[in-house]
Amino acid sequence: MTQRAAFLDTPTLVPGITRFWLIRHALVEQNARMKLYGSLDVPLCPESLIAQVPMYEALAARLPRDAVWVTTPLSRTQHTAQAIQAAGYPATEWSVESGLIEQSMGDYHGLQHHELPERLIMPAHPFWPMAADEVPPGGESMVQVLERVGEAIERLADTHDGQDIVVVSHGGAIRAATAHALGVDADTSLRLSVQNLSLTILERHPASWRVVAVNELPGI
């Protein structure tokens, strides 16, 4: 689902509410997209960094000032954060949170997409390389990702209680964070569309989580 109408309406932060602004990193380079890259550190597409400047500018204008910034250890999230700040957001240092990294595909990293199905134990998910509870050799399942990401965002919310937190992360991790907020399983989370440079907004209230927007596309 894509939220559009409220794009220019930045919600007012109420005391006791912690708000996450989750951004999926920009498009990675073409050779990486031809393979399963998961938690590998692959570069962004150089052409997209230029072509998507309007999206970076829209995100820079959309995001709250005085926010805490967080990226993952992978360069594609950090370079996306740099591009957003260069497009008009005040220069802000960020911390690195490994708990919000993408799903590890383990031994399946680097496989061509057509090479994967014959190695799977269960049928692949319609919208993900594998079923949510399949554990690739040496990797982790989306069920495990949901547990890891849930712990990370709860910890960040405790540390930065009542603040805005901008997180530049990955498609799988953002799906997992949304599933944690909704209280749904990992399989359901994989049905969400989370496009590159899209914005997902989650709030932790004293008694519950709330989903404000999912897959909001900047400037659209």
Distance between the first and last residues' Cα: 13 Å
The helix fraction, in percent, is: 25-40%
Strand neighbour order, sheet with most strands: 3-2-4-1-5-6
CATH topology (level 3) name: Rossmann fold
Number of domains: 1
Order of helices and strands: EHHHEHEHEHHEE
Rounded radius of gyration (Å): 17 Å
CATH architecture: 3-Layer(aba) Sandwich
Largest sheet: 6 strands, mixed
CATH C-level label:
Alpha Beta
| Annotation, overall tally of beta strands | 6
Mean pLDDT: 92
Share of β-strand residues: 15-25%
Query: If helices are DSSP runs of H or I spanning 4 or more residues, what is the number of helices?
Result: 7
Shape: globular
Word description of this protein:
The chain has about 220 residues and is of the alpha/beta class. It has a single domain (about 20-215), classed as 3-Layer(aba) Sandwich (Rossmann fold). It has seven helices and six strands. The chain has helices at about 30-35, 45-50, 55-60, 75-85, 140-160, 170-180, 185-190; strands spanning about 20-25, 70, 95, 165-170, 200-205, 210-215. The protein has a six-stranded mixed beta sheet with strand order 3-2-4-1-5-6. The protein is globular, with a radius of gyration of 17 Å. Residues about 1-10 have low confidence and may be disordered. GO terms for molecular function: phosphatase activity. It holds the Pfam family His_Phos_1. This is Histidine phosphatase family protein. It comes from Lichenicola cladoniae.
What labels describe this entry?
disordered N terminus, Rossmann fold, six-stranded mixed sheet, globular, 220 residues, 30% helix, alpha/beta
